[in-house]
Task: structure prediction
Amino acid sequence: MNDLGKQQFQMKGRADKLIGIIKITLLVSVVIFLTLKGTENRYSLREENLKKTIELLTDQLSNTRDELLEARFKLGIKHFWNVDEVVRSPQDKTKFYYTTSDGSGESIWAYDLNRDSNYTARGYFDFPLGNTMLYNEKLPEGKIFQLLEIDYDGNLVFWEPWNDFSPGPGFSPWQSPEVLSNLYALDLTKDKLEKKSYTYPKK
Result:
């Protein structure tokens, strides 16, 4: 097993352990709830509190799994392709988007968990199986793609900074005239993806 495989295995082990603790806590709450369910009215308030606890723990379990999946993906794609920034679809949490640079130019990629048969079967990422190139362009030397977000209409929004762009802490792209005047998007709801100019909605 290579270093990336070992790291994925270790992170998956820690994730499974944490999820196991949450599951045990949830199970204990369910047992207590069922024990009290048939008792007298004086337990009704306690039952209601236990219901809320069970709902909260269920949500926490789901959120923990989701956060650990994203963390594992970012670690894996960093080692696989030296990718630093990843945008996850808010509409479909199984899809991740990122950019790469090579001799062919700048590329925008999508990774779909459902296309990665290794992940669905074993829980480990096989990036070539899940990857699809969405767009490639030869930009002027020194320019790169930088993904920003996926909006509510399914537009993958990005801009084209210089590769040495370093804005510093506290920088917000949505408050930068340089960024706002240089926005582009791919409409992910379309079958044929074409780069288009994009205007950030004014609030």
